[in-house]
Design brief:
mainly alpha; single chain; two-stranded antiparallel sheet; Bromodomain-like; 63% helix
Length: 157
């Protein structure tokens, strides 16, 4: 694959995964925890950089040689989200401790609070399929997509 194709691919993966997360949130009613939000930002960045950057290249605003940098930045965003997904899945499976603010050991110490609000905890998987949580699926898909993109760029060189 060319750098342009990798940029489109990684941007598309970022967009697809953020749309999937929004579907689970708004379509199926699974509110995201704090660590879920952490994983969203790199996907948003990958989508904006990968897809937006390639649109700018196609429009002639950016030179075609910028495609490699765009591809690498989009790939990095997808890989970072995958790494955060590994961390979050490990917290859900209790392989290691997560941030105190969003795990079951947290004690609220003051400030306004809505006692009826549904607060998702980072160490409890809200949804699983075949024993894999959403964070686990994000890790698998993101890291596989990043590896494929990196392999494609390295092979082209």
């Amino acid at each position: 694959m060319t750098a342009q194709q990798v940029a489109w691919f990684e941007g598309g993966v970022g967009l697809a995964l953020i749309l999937g997360a929004l579907f689970f949130q708004y379509g199926l009613g699974y509110p995201p925890c704090e660590m879920c939000h952490w994983q969203r930002w790199p996907h948003i960045a990958a989508a904006v950089v990968g897809l937006g950057g390639m649109i700018l290249v196609m429009a002639g605003v950016l030179p075609p040689r910028a495609a490699l940098v765009i591809a690498l930045l989009a790939l990095l965003g997808v890989a970072i989200s995958g790494g955060l997904g590994v961390y979050h899945a490990g917290v859900e499976y209790h392989w290691w401790k997560g941030p105190q603010a969003c795990t079951t050991g947290y004690v609220f110490t003051g400030g306004p609070i809505d006692l009826n609000a549904r607060v998702p905890m980072c160490d409890r998987a809200a949804w699983t399929l075949f024993g894999i949580s959403l964070a686990g699926f994000n890790a698998l898909i993101s890291l596989a997509a990043a590896a494929f993109g990196a392999y494609s760029l390295a092979r082209k060189r």
